[in-house]
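seq as requested:
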Amino acid sequence: MSEPTGLRARKKERTRDAIGDAAVSLFLEHGFDRVSVNDVAAAAEISKPTLFRYFPTKEDLVLHRFADHQGEAARVVYDRGPGLQPVTALHRHFRAGLDRYDPVTGLSDHPEVVAFHRLVFTTPSLAGRLTRYQLEDEEALADALGNGIQARLRAAQVLAVQRVLARTNWQKIADGRTAHDVRPEAVADADLAFSQLR
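struct tokens:
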């Protein structure tokens, strides 16, 4: 008797999350370069080949947390209301993230989130892999915006703005300020940046 596809998918997702959580905990405690894939597999109580079925590279063990946001800018453009300009929709979406203190905006002072961003930003192989994710997002957003060089340039500009805003917010918090204290500046910076994009 085979189990339902939905149950199987949920079990795989739980396993993937458990492996990723074990990896991130080890990386935060010991540093990315000091933890081997074997260490992660042992902590997650799985074999190394099983680990690689879920995560093709060591970097993916960390960056899977960005997977929920993969293609997000393109989805915002595709799902925007009639008559709403793409940059306006993206601006509103970013502002909504600031209102929720969404970690992707850099406006989160949860210690694990701050440490996670520090890990990503200061580990060259993770920063390089993150750049690949960003380039994929840029291509998806360019497709959503239209054809040609104008769409590609606009996509690159929007994602660069979001990246700079998020990194600036994170740096202020990493320097010891609270997310609540940084929020007014983050909102003002986002409003200024998106107004310049228009």
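DSSP finds ten helices and no strands in the chain.
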